[in-house]
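anyone else get weird line breaks when pasting these?? whatever heres mine. first is seq + tokens for prot A
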Amino acid sequence: MESILSKDEIKQFELAKMATEISCCDWSLLEKVALVCRILFEAGHDSGLSGQISARVNNAEFITQSLGVGFDEVSVSNLLTVSSELNVVSGKGMPNPANRFHSWIYAARPDVNCIVHTHPIYTAALSMLEVPLIVGHTDSCVLFDEVNFLPKWDGIPVGNSEGETITKALGSKKALLLGHHGLVTVARNVEEACILALQFERAARLQLMAMSAGQIVPIESTPAAEAHDWLLQENRVNATFSYYARRALRVDSSCLS
């Protein structure tokens, strides 16, 4: 009888397969940013002109959308590259002044290369209750031990004080729930920041539904940590992002132009 592989052995075997069988996304950085805007729009993250997506180009510059352009209108051709002081380096238009806090996060977190800030409905509703996000479902485990909470909010994030506040509240985590406001997710790349934002909103929706029926029981730390690491494997994240990108492109492929 053949020996039965342990769970850890099976996991390592499958991870090795992912590394060879799942290809990385081949879109440019500009294309990925445009795709994230379209993906998040389709997922209900739009709130008029509120919210920003940015991706680090280098230590002094990042890509973001132009103020006045909705998430569903963003394309490669209308994205901006701006300096840490929000001066336009390339492109036409002006960045959202609220992008200033992105500069603070990039300066404090060299591990961060993409920032998503949106006001999706369920996250916004949860933020109004001044209740932290609870990881109580397997899909939400990408956020296990990754979310900090800022219950009180000072106002529009256009000043340096808000940059300091948000960066301090985020700390070393990948996500932040802003009371009476929305979400911030940060990550090593565009793909991961997008997936975290999508799952954040789904987790908030599940939490509000569960709260209406009873008391939520968080997932225990050991299985939650295992699911977190599995779901955030780079190749799995890339495959998930590619799926959502294909969905967005079926709706409208103009974002790549």
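and prot B, same format (seq, then tokens)
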Amino acid sequence: MESESVRVLVVDDHPMWRDAVARDLGEAGIDVVGTAGDGAKALRIAPATRPTLAVVDLHLPDMTGVELTAGLLALPEPPRVLVLSASGAGDDVLAAVKAGATGYLVKSAGREELLDAVHRVHAGEAVYTPGLAGLVLGEYRRLSSAEQARDPEAPALTPRETEVLRLVAKGLAYKQIAQRLAISHRTVQNHVQNTLTKLHLHNRVELVRYAIDRGLDG
């Protein structure tokens, strides 16, 4: 998905806010392929508009954003989901992430923060409003002990793959990892893809969880 152009579906029941987000994205050169004020319309138009990313509010008139996230991810060509909500409550954040959202921003985020999150989430990075990342990581740690007990053996990674994995788990963007390790952005991508293949994982969110399970984010 990183090589694809960003195609965004904006879902929010407040017309002024929905239009403002769509306008900001469009002015930044991002293709807004559709907007919806409720979950039913979003699920109805998504197969035809084929968004690669959905910006979703949590509070919709017909369903929750968590339910919509699960519905979008069940589509044959699922988009990544970035939740953009007025709520920064821990329960809302964790519910969205558990449903499969790759990112979560509160609506107080600035325009540049939103644009950065859209690009990073589209590339498969887990992005959260500052202060929320620790909450999500803490929950992953809490849930990981049983999984680790069931599968204590980790596939062998090279030292460089482990180094990249550790930095991914700390929340660094690929560009930051490349600068830190003095390697190219493409090399970082290759290491991440090789690691995903070895671990039989599907995206960066699952990779971060794997790393946290094994204490590599310290």
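btw re prot B: The chain has two domains: 7-131, 145-213. Strands lie at 7-11, 31-36, 53-56, 80-85, 103-106, 127-128.
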